[in-house]
Write a structure and sequence with these properties.
10 helices; mainly alpha; disordered N terminus; three-stranded antiparallel sheet; elongated; single chain
Amino acid sequence: MEQGRTRDGVRLPYASSGTPPDARVPEQARGEHTHSEPHAPRVVQRHSVRGQVLDALRAALVGGELAPGQVYSAPALGARFGVSATPVREAMQQLTVEGAVEVVPNRGFRVSERGPRELSELAEVRALIEVPVMLRLARTVPAGNWCALRPLADATVAAAAVGDRASYAECDRAFHRAVLALSGNEQLVMVADDLHRRSQWPLVSTPATRRADLLADASEHTALLDALIARDLAVVQSLVREHFNGADG
């Protein structure tokens, strides 16, 4: 994946202690890559800058460019983004609310350090929320509705195949959102998506997720969709429980 800028010229952040290579924010929820470098940062409206920066920060968190325990200052990140420190602070404040970073007075924001226990707790809560809903939907949703989700399942496989963690994270959440959206409960979708996002942040002292692990997780999406289309409730129940017993599906 080419390093440096997003499609809109926003650059990904790194700790001020070094100058590692830049990283492009991937296409969201599609597993695609854009390989051409823009000639210059595109001018964007003020109201969209915060969202672009927030998306870039989230991708950098999942992709490992923002390391747990490292402190990042808003002015330094703003300089890398080519924007003022204000939208960076606004985006970082949102990440603070989400638990991804914490404020370090007079210095900036430290990326939260998370351990296996927190990941296990998140998986348990997600399972308590999502598994009963999926089993209920398996009994009531027509096969055609599940077939419409095939491109989303295929997108997770495509992202996993190239080992792009940030793109895979977006595709993974998009698939789960679409499944839960069939319940018609918007609050459920929002709560589950927030928990899912939190479960995707890297752990302290844990090697980067391997491509094989991403492919194994993506294959569970495909198998689950096949079982839902076939209304094989026994397989659906087995797959959804196995999926949530995994680390970060």
